[in-house]
């Protein structure tokens, strides 16, 4: 079975984990985290970077540091990670979705403009799945209305527009260092900003502690999970877990397990540890090489796809980063997935790709988001995939697509 995604498991990470549980001086830990924060800020071409326990913690820290309060309106993408919505709503924010472009899968300056009203206090723009959105034009629009722009760069570290790194366009940006994302620290996040006052407020709000056992627990979970995905047993198990009857339930249970690993949302923010800083700094150093490798594979995959697949357009506004390979399929995606699974290929569909947040928020006027949600397919393309494996994926897609009317 070719899994939907695979995460790299460098042996170095294991050693870093083992060494990090040995007794050590706290001061050394903090210095290592600070070194990573400085390297990250430099790479993203901003003045301030702050390590957090997760991408969503970084987002909430931005919300609080901006002084957003209950009743304020925030414009959000109509198609992005749905789990962000209840977290923002818990602050009393009223979320208004801006529809997306069906080619880039990103919100547009026009769709954002249509949603700006007297109560709008922030705009959250995402560079979805590594594709830069028109963040310079959206930024100008935000400036003209005096509204802060927040960039969600969870999928986009290393992407750029005219040589300027994504994340440096808005008032502040968040990144995720989750195990499945480009710079994995087995969990964690980054807040970056060029605004010194905002950085200072965020710093004051974040209780910096340096015990990192949450990340080690998560790393252990990920290592076990990844060995499972690579074992011969994975094929038969995946066929049962991902069939039509079980896929929804499995997805919910899996997200639930992750939420528990993160810890309760009302607990104080977890620390970012020296273990995470060491691992993340290593990944940051390798980021450009990895992005180049995967973007080359992306082009190869796009070239070989059967005719009814339309890959996401990623280069409309800049140079893309890499997160996942996604395409729209003209046909019933459930039938496609079933046919592919039978042939040993695990595709993601529906909320396994991203969520129709407009619908989640009770809006029915974002037809493009609904369209993309219904036709989106996540096709395996990951680090370490070679030309032969890629060919296998493409062959199965051709055969599976032929079975779908
Ligand atoms: C992963 C992700 C986040 C948040 O990251 P966590 O580290 O998992 O909290 C934010 N936005 C998007 C679009 C994401 O995919």
Report on this structure.
The chain has 405 residues and is α/β, with parallel strands linked by helices. The radius of gyration is 21 Å and the shape is globular. Strands 1-10-9-6-5-2-4 form a seven-stranded mixed sheet, sandwiched between helices. It starts with 10 loop residues before the first helix and ends with a helix. The longest helix has 31 residues. The protein binds pyridoxal-5'-phosphate (PLP). Pyridoxal-5'-phosphate (PLP) binds next to helix 3.
Poorly predicted ranges: none
Could you tell me which ligands this complex binds, including any ions or cofactors?
pyridoxal-5'-phosphate
Number of strands: 15
Could you describe the largest sheet, including whether it forms a barrel? Answer: 7 strands, mixed
Give the overall silhouette.
globular
Q: How many helices does DSSP assign?
A: 15
- Strand content is 5-15%
Helix-strand category: alpha/beta
Distance between the ends: 24 Å
Q: What string gives the helices and strands in order? A: HHEHEEHEHEHEEEEEHHHHHEEHEEHHEH
Strand order of the largest sheet: 1-10-9-6-5-2-4
Specify the helix fraction band: 40-55%
Q: Nearest-angstrom radius of gyration? A: 21 Å
Mean pLDDT comes to 91
Features:
405 residues, alpha/beta, 7-stranded mixed β-sheet, 4-stranded antiparallel β-sheet, 15 helices, 45% helix, globular, binds pyridoxal-5'-phosphate
């Amino acid at each position: 079975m070719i899994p939907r995604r695979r995460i790299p498991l460098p042996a170095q990470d294991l050693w870093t984990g083992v060494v990090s549980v040995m007794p050590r001086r706290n001061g050394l830990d903090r210095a290592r985290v600070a070194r990573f924060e400085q390297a990250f800020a430099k790479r993203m071409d901003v003045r301030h970077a702050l390590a957090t326990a997760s991408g969503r913690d970084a987002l909430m820290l931005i919300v609080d540091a901006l002084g957003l309060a209950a009743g304020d309106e925030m414009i959000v993408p109509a198609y992005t990670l749905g789990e962000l919505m209840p977290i923002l709503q818990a602050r009393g924010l009223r979320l208004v979705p801006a529809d997306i472009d069906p080619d880039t899968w990103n919100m547009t300056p026009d769709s954002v403009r249509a949603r700006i009203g007297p109560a709008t206090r922030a705009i959250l723009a995402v560079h979805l799945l590594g594709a830069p959105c028109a963040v310079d034009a959206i930024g100008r629009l935000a400036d003209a209305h005096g509204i802060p722009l927040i960039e969600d760069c969870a999928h986009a570290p290393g992407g750029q527009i005219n040589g300027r790194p994504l994340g440096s366009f808005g008032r502040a940006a968040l990144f995720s260092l989750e195990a499945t994302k480009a710079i994995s620290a087995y969990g964690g996040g980054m807040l970056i900003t060029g605004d010194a006052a905002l950085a200072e407020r965020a710093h004051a709000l974040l209780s910096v502690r340096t015990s990192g056992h949450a990340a080690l627990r998560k790393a252990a979970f990920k290592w076990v999970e990844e060995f499972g995905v690579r074992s011969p047993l994975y094929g038969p198990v995946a066929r049962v877990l991902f069939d039509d009857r079980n896929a929804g339930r499995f997805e919910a249970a899996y997200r639930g397990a992750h939420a528990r690993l993160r810890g309760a949302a009302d607990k104080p923010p977890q620390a970012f540890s020296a273990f995470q800083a060491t691992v993340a700094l290593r990944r940051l150093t390798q980021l450009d090489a990895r992005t180049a490798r995967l973007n080359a594979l992306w082009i190869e995959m796009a070239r070989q796809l059967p005719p009814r697949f339309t890959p996401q357009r990623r280069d409309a506004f800049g140079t893309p980063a890499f997160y996942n390979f996604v395409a729209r399929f003209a046909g019933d995606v459930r039938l496609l997935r079933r046919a592919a699974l039978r042939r040993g290929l695990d595709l993601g569909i529906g909320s396994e790709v991203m969520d129709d947040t407009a619908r989640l928020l009770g809006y029915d006027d974002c037809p493009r988001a609904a369209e993309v949600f219904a036709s989106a397919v996540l096709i395996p393309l990951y680090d370490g995939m070679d030309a032969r494996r890629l060919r296998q994926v493409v062959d199965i897609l051709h055969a599976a697509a032929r079975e779908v009317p």
